[in-house]
């Protein structure tokens, strides 16, 4: 069985470790065409001190100093001077090489407040060194999508690429698709994904990480 796994790359790599677990698990059921989605080489979550987050609404950056890492796989906690209240807040920030972006963690993120670094050139992100660049990545992935027997997507971290792949998969009439979403993230899944669920060919499953193996087992045994 050929499995196409979708997970965020340029959309943000905060779920990388989970993608690795999913890819590992999917190997039990077939060959995973998009193994690279779980590759640690496509991410770099090290906090670089000269890349201090800047608020788009402030003339000077908030004062941030590195704080000891919290027991959170993909974020670091920093203490930040809150320029709005003049108080001190603790926030989790994330920076990945793919997005060059700092983002407040899901749990602590006030609505609409994100600290962004400017994006790097797109050819520095995702799969580097692909000779034909983004065109080759796109064409190869659409080809793999067509070849695949099933699509499994982790959709908690929003990603344009994953959304696009799922839209294309819906149009490939016999493609069975499982979308996995973690409500514990505090996010709300796009209506364009949840609303596409038909309970048969396109499934959307809310889950927690400890249910992963069981859910995949159920999904793949339902295909037999
Ligand atoms: O370098 C890449 N390689 C690649 O295969 N993709 C595909 C696979 C992923 O499921 C999806 C991720 O999209 P995005 O990068 O917009 O988060 O797109 C995406 C990129 C970068 O956009």
UniProtKB/TrEMBL annotation:
Pfam families xrefs: Nuc_deoxyrib_tr
Substrates-to-products reaction catalysed: a purine 2'-deoxyribonucleoside 5'-phosphate + H2O = a purine nucleobase + 2-deoxy-D-ribose 5-phosphate; 5-hydroxymethyl-dUMP + H2O = 5-hydroxymethyluracil + 2-deoxy-D-ribose 5-phosphate; a pyrimidine 2'-deoxyribonucleoside 5'-phosphate + H2O = a pyrimidine nucleobase + 2-deoxy-D-ribose 5-phosphate
Subcellular location as annotated: Cytoplasm; Nucleus
Alphabetized UniProt keyword annotations: Cytoplasm, Glycosidase, Hydrolase, Nucleotide metabolism, Nucleus
Binding locations of substrate: 4-10, 19, 165, 190-192
EC number, as in UniProt: 3.2.2.-
Domain of life where this protein originates: Eukaryota
Gene Ontology process terms (BP): deoxyribonucleoside monophosphate catabolic process; nucleoside metabolic process; nucleotide metabolic process
Cellular component GO terms, alphabetical: cytoplasm; nucleus
GO molecular function, one term: 5-hydroxymethyl-dUMP N-hydrolase activity
tRNA processing is among the record's keywords: no
Region (Disordered): 100-140
Biased composition (Basic and acidic residues): 100-110
Chief localisation class: cytoplasm
PANTHER family reported in the protein's UniProt record: 2'-DEOXYNUCLEOSIDE 5'-PHOSPHATE N-HYDROLASE 1 (PTHR15364)
Free-text function comment from the UniProt entry: Catalyzes the cleavage of the N-glycosidic bond of deoxyribonucleoside 5'-monophosphates to yield deoxyribose 5-phosphate and a purine or pyrimidine base. Deoxyribonucleoside 5'-monophosphates containing purine bases are preferred to those containing pyrimidine bases.
Known partners and oligomeric status: Monomer and homodimer.
Recorded family membership: Belongs to the 2'-deoxynucleoside 5'-phosphate N-hydrolase 1 family.
HAMAP family the record matches: Nuc_phosphate_hydrolase
Protein known as: 2'-deoxynucleoside 5'-phosphate N-hydrolase 1
């Amino acid at each position: 069985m050929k499995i196409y796994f979708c997970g965020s790359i340029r959309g943000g790599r905060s779920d990388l470790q989970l993608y690795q677990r999913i890819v590992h698990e999917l190997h039990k059921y077939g060959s995973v065409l998009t193994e690279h989605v779980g590759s640690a080489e496509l991410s770099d979550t090290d906090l670089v001190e000269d890349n201090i987050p800047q608020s788009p609404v402030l003339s000077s950056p908030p004062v941030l100093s590195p704080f000891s890492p919290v027991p959170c796989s993909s974020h670091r906690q920093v203490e930040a001077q809150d320029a709005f209240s003049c108080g001190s807040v603790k926030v989790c920030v994330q920076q990945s090489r793919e997005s060059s972006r700092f983002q407040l963690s899901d749990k602590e993120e006030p609505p609409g407040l994100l600290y962004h670094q400017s994006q790097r050139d797109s050819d520095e992100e995702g799969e580097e060194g692909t000779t034909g660049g983004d065109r080759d990545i796109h064409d190869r992935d659409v080809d793999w999508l067509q070849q695949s027997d099933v699509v499994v997507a982790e959709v908690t971290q929003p990603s344009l690429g994953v959304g696009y792949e799922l839209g294309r998969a819906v149009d490939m009439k016999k493609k069975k698709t499982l979308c996995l979403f973690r409500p514990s993230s505090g996010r709300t899944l796009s209506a364009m994904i949840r609303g596409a669920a038909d309970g048969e060919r396109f499934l959307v499953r809310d889950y927690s990480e400890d249910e992963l193996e069981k859910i995949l087992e159920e999904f793949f045994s339902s295909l037999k």
